[in-house]
Amino acid sequence: MNMGQAGQYTNGPMLKLAHVTKTFGGLTAVQDVDLEVWPREIVSIIGPNGAGKTTVFNVITGIYRPTTGDIALAGSSVVGLTPDKVLVRGIARTFQNIRLFNNMTVLENVLVGQHSQLRAGVLGALFNTPRVKHEEAEARKRAIELLGFFGPALVERQDEYVMNLSYAERRRVEIARALGAKPKLLLLDEPTAGMNEAETLDAVKYVLRLRDELQLTILLIEHKLTVTMGISDRIAVLDYGRKIAEGLPEEIRRNEQVIAAYLGKAAQADQ
Amino acid sequence: MSTLISPHVLLAVRDNRQLLLKWIVALLVPLAVFTFLWNGEAMANQVLLGLFVGVSTSFDTITLIFAAIFVVVFYAVIITLSGYLVAADSGQRSVVDLWLDVLVYILVPLFLVIGTGLIIGLALAALVWAIYLYVRSRVFTKRTIKSGAMLSELAVLAEEQRGELMRRAVLGGFWFATAFAVVSLVLDLIFYVVGQLPDILLVWVVLRTILLPIVGYFLGYVGGLAAVRRTIAAKTNGNGRGVTNVSKKRRLEVLSTARALEEAKDLVPNDLPLSSTGAQRFYLLLLTAFILFYPFIDPFLFGPGTGGRLAGYGDAGYYVILALGLNIVVGFAGLLDLGYVAFFAIGSYTWAIFGSTQWGLLTGLTIPLNTIGWYFWPMLLVTALVAAFFGLLLGAPTLRLRGDYLAIVTLGFGEIVPVIFLELDQYTNGANGIVGVQSPHLFGVDWSGFTPGPYYYLIVVLIVLVIFANIRLRDSRLGRAWVAIREDEIAAASSGVNLVNTKLLAFAAGAFFSGIAGAYHSAKLGSITPDSFSFGDSVIYLAMVVIGGIGSIPGVIVGALTVYAINQFILAQLDTLAADPASFLHAVSAAIVQVFPGFTFGNVRNLVFGVILVIVMIFRPEGFIPSARRKRELRRKEEEGPEVGSLDVVPGAPGFESEMRIE
Question: Looking at this predicted complex, what is its ipTM?
Answer without folding.
Answer: 0.91
